[in-house]
Amino acid sequence: MLLLLLHFPLLVMVYGQQGVILPLSELIETHGLETRSVFKQYPILQKIMTAHDGNIYALPRINENYHYLMPQKMWIYEPWLTKLGLEMPTTTEEFYHVLKAFKEQDPNGNGISDEIPLAGNNEDPFSSVASFIMNAFVFYNQIMNQSLSLEDGRVQADFNKVGYRNGLEYLNKLYNEGLIAPESFTQDNRQLKDMVEQEEPIVGVVPSWGIYEFTDIQSESRRYLDYKSIPPLKGPDGLQVTPYNPYPFDRGVFVITSNSKHPEVAFRWADAMYSEEITLRQVHGRPNKEWRWAQAGEIGLNGNPAHWRKLLQFGIKQNYHWYQTGPAKQDQRFRSSLASDGIEDPEAILYEETLMSCSINDLFSMKTT
Known about the structure:
With 369 residues, the protein is of the alpha+beta class. The chain has helices at residues 9-17, 25-31, 33-41, 43-49, 66-69, 78-84, 92-104, 129-133, 162-176, 189-196, 211-214, 263-272, 276-284, 332-336, 346-356; strands spanning 2-4, 59-63, 74-77, 116-118, 148-151, 154-157, 203-207, 227-229, 249-256, 291-293, 308-310, 329-330.
């Protein structure tokens, strides 16, 4: 018996020590050709997959994509900036004045005060109104739901810091002035997308890891082309950061239960999923149907010769692949070697706009790594 998508490391360890799921360490040693290769490529991964008792109970998924590395982004409807003669905001003060202009100056030109300056949702942590903005006041890492940090040998809580309080006061100011949609605290992804995709544009700014979450890339409006990411805002005390995810791993995507009659076969099946072609079949579908190898002259997202091409865009209903369910290895080389269709390609947009979301110190550059 196989159990997929047991995401919580603590539960994996508990079930392993209770004998509900099997330890995989010996299977990795004897049959884990691809798994050992993954651990060699990411030495830290084997350490974080090992429970306190020394056993490995689950296999991970590697997904080193551009938006997963820096997902706390904010997107702004650029035509409104152009119409009102505004520049892309660079500070929290400029951002406030842009939102005020969106609310008061009728940027959609319909003569009705129906503009929503800023809207998020309550389903995705990266779509909360605080996710992007708070980083101008305090380092606010929502990637791993981290609110604790180690500073000078002492554990510090973000919510005890002056910057955290100042950030909440700033958000409260935006809300009290009608610059944040009240629905942001109750609606889900679908409701936010419906709000953005109305016939006339009414939403100016949206926090999200990517355009797929709040726009419909299949819509005739092609509104996703008009939202651009805002570079990290500088706060009143000069803070200007972007949280970066150094661990692009999902740790508990495959386990083998103690009821399995053939654990070696089950493990070898899962281990094979880390190979490139089986990753492509599992995550993206059938060769020459949902994906194909790149052809001569095709260029990847990183500007180098492409290695593979999607034939079925993300977000379209299908029954040919698992998308991201079981073990797979999509490292940065693989993700950035995806063939690009140019400036209107959603994947290319997400790649380039994520680069725009890097911190001012350029701690990481996907174009050179």
